[in-house]
Amino acid sequence: MLARALAAREPESAYRLALQAAAGGAPGAAGLLDRVEGALPFARVLALQDELAPGNDIPANALARLSRIREEAAMRLTGNGRSRSYATAAFFALIGAAAADSESEGILEEIDEMMRAAGPDAVALWRVQEAAAADRARATWIELDLPATLGAAN
Question: Is the pLDDT assigned to residue 154 strictly greater than 60?
Answer without folding.
Answer: no
